[in-house]
Amino acid sequence: MSRLAVALRLEVTLQRRYRFLHAAVFSGLLWLALLLPMPGRLRSVAEPYVILGDLMIVGFFFVAGAVFFEKGERTLDAVVASPLRFGEYLASKVLTLTGLSVLLAVFVATVTHGVDYHLGLVLLGASLGTVLMLLLGFLTALPFTSVSDWFMPAVVPVAVFNLPILAYSGVWTTPWLYLVPTHGPLLFLGAAFGQKTLTAWQYAYGIAYPVLFAAGMWVLARRLFDRYLVVKTGGQ
């Protein structure tokens, strides 16, 4: 069995222990309780905001919570000392939590809209948005030793990554918001429910920019992991 497969199995076990699946199901039920009483037209307007909010919960907060659980249980010390590579460790989190987030987004969209939405765009927007929020949550959690220390400073990057909501809703339509990488995923979610019509350059931007931004965040995550965990534990 490959190291990545072992890491994936361990990650699933840890997420079950941390009750992430239970929390995700509870979150999905809350969103359904919000969406189902709405008229169909209003539901389509609200759906992209709901899915983006769920990406933030499953992506940003779940991965940060996992990091703090692992720090408290000294699991990360064992990871640093093991043959598991950083890329395999982080990939296991990204793959499992992105899968959970996308599954939840499709579930909520299907319950509220049946098949009257664009599945491919939901998958694209949810997966890209979750990866970005996951990496952001991971990056912000590494320098801190406790949730209480982390929570207030984490509000700033979360707020920045949610700024495209202002452009999407028409409140603030400055082109500068295209520099925020979650803008593309939000455009895809809006188009999936008939709220936006995208041009070819927006499709290209919505895929390429988040992928490049996520790659840069991955590199930064490796450096912060080495700085805050590997060096402190004496790993290589």
TrEMBL record:
It holds the Pfam family FLQE3_permease. InterPro entries: FLQE3_permease (IPR056926). Keywords: Membrane, Transmembrane, Transmembrane helix. The chain crosses the membrane at residues 20-37, 49-69, 89-109, 121-144, 150-169, 200-221. This is Fluoroquinolone transporter permease. It comes from Amycolatopsis samaneae. The lineage of its organism: Bacteria, Bacillati, Actinomycetota, Actinomycetes, Pseudonocardiales.
